Amino acid sequence: MKYNKYRKLVLPAGVALFMIVGSVFLANFLYTRITQILAETAQQDTKNNILEGRLATLQALSEDIKEGANAVTFAIPDKNPSVLILNQLKSLAGDNNILLENISISSQPLAEETGLVSYTISFEAQASSTQILIDFVDGLSSVTPIINISTLEIKSGLASDVTATLGLMAYSAPFPEQLPALEEPLVGLSPEEQSVLDTIQTFTRPEVFTSGDPATQVVPRENPFFLEF
Amino acid sequence: MVSINLLPKDSAPSKNELRFASAINKIAMFSVAVFLLICVFGGGAYFILARQLQSANDDAQRLSTSVQSLQSSESSLILIRDRVQKAQAALNSRISEGYFDKHQKILSLDIPGISFVSSTVDSGKSVIELEISGSASMASLFSTLLADSQFSSLILEKLSYNSLTGYDVTLQVY
Known about the structure:
With 229 residues, chain A is an alpha+beta fold. Chain A has 6 helices and 4 strands.
């Protein structure tokens, strides 16, 4: 009899218990999911910001970027630049009426951190005056592929002719093999990089290669940087 | 109307029991309300945030497509940066060129009575040899060179005199 008094409480007590337990489970589930969604959204927003920055950088690049890529590819080619160097030497020598002799080329790996392979080109040059030879040597510093003077000895002869023995350094380096991941930020060229690029673009390129765009001559492209002369 | 209670007095709930039953009912109603609130607000928040995430994913897809459409510009930029860094390293190692510029500077002074004999340059050596016809020309050359701040170091390596050709001067120029 006594327990009959509590029979009416079973339903509300059961409902209360079910709702409390249900509320706890539901709240826990929603909290977990919402936290997860917030984290994913924040992560996605960060990626989107990077993508937007990347897109803005790429859209801001001028059409000259292709020309710049072409110029720097000649400055530091990915393969042995000896043929290009010889072409430049021949051209400069022809412009200055200089006779080139005893040309030799050798290559050696440079420090690994720069990734450069250097090539030593040595030869003798003969000119009719000191000034002609000076102009020739001067011209070497403003051609691509980039050439550095390693050794230079100029001697005026007994006659009016002047001879020079030159050792030059040229460089090559493999092209980058992949683009950075989309999640990585991308910025344009720094002022220093732009300045070097501007300098390189003023350099004289090998004549036989300036008429065509080497970037469009290779099909198929093994990677986005594969440019062949 | 008269209220008649036919139940035995001991079966009637006590005040405490009535209070307990009322509390249970209130708790039940409150827990239902809380459950509903969680359903409405939690579910609503979940729905809105899921939409936002979907929108962010859609944006990412759109941006990725746009970026990939500019891949050729990107590869050019990466290529330029890579080559420029290497070119800069090569250009920064131009030492002999700087020495040779100084030799040119000496030759361009155009002082009468001075003629060029030889010039030797490498990364650690910069020597120019000149023939100078008289002491006046030599004095003029040295005074000009000493007044020029472009030359950080001038070392007279050799000085000889020949009655036919005049002075033979070998200078280390840095």
